[in-house]
Design brief:
SH3 type barrels, 4 domains, 9 helices, single chain, Helix Hairpins
Length: 349
Amino acid sequence: MAEQDNNPPDSGQSEDAPREIDLDPGMAMERLDSWLDGAVRLLPNIIVALIILAIFMGLGLLARRLIRSHLKKKQRANLGDVLGGLVKWIIYVVGFLLAATIVIPTLKPGDLIAGLGISSVAIGFAFKDILQNWLAGLLILLRQPFEVNDQIEVNDHHGTVERIETRATLIKTFDGQRIVVPNSDIYTNAVLVKTAYNKRRSEYDIGIGYGDDIDEACDVIRDTLAGVDGIESEPPPQALPWDLAASWVTIRARWWTDSRRSDVTRVRARVIKALKLALDDASIDMPYEVQVQLFHDQTEETDGDRSAQREGWPAPKEGKVRPRWKAEVEEIVSASDPGTDRESGAADN
């Protein structure tokens, strides 16, 4: 039997040599040609996908414009910006998914949605603070606990709300500064809205003397408050006996003004000036705080003897009481110098 040749016939192509870089222009051109053929076959799909993507982009812009204009008419322009941007990007994503399925028919929308779900979790962890502030801003705009131009207090910050953005709320302080407060801080903390209502109550404590008539002082305070410009007549001003302090009787004055801080501050200044003048004209005393301090030498011989010493100052029985410390000093001096005259030393002291 003849020995068979195990070598394959020559196919006209050279085999790839190991550990060598083969430069075959023919294979590169063939691969490029296949790509071009695929692109030509997908060209109608690409054109349709671009048209659909453009349509959805136009729909997104149109939806944002309609939402913004509609909410702007309702004096909620900030909500229109945030909500319009959200709807726009949702429409963009839907258009992109449809365009992708047209270009690549084997691509299933369910796979894309699943991939977006996994990636959204990763994005959520990476941009947790940004997304939290954005969601808090959206909830603030939807629930509307306060509006632009409201005066609020949050985290010891006082001011007027300038703008509510997707990440933070801009507050202009009363001394002309701007504070950028993250929306998550506002949404998770207590917020005092000072202009939530049209009127705000203010109060001030006045001290009168114990010898003055309380009813007369209250009448003078109420009449004075009723005549101050800027104080509301309803509810009427009040003057209430409030405290019995160490040196005066406290009367609390209450009045209502417009809730804007500028009105509250100006009216408070007028009230203090008017009350001072009115109480002076009525001869009602406004005493200042009185403090009594007792000074005495705690080294007398009668220290600890309650029958011979009273609080504040020792009560001598007869004559002048000589402090105990002087007697002790004289004894020490006489012990060191027997010739010292104790009486003369005491006289010198």
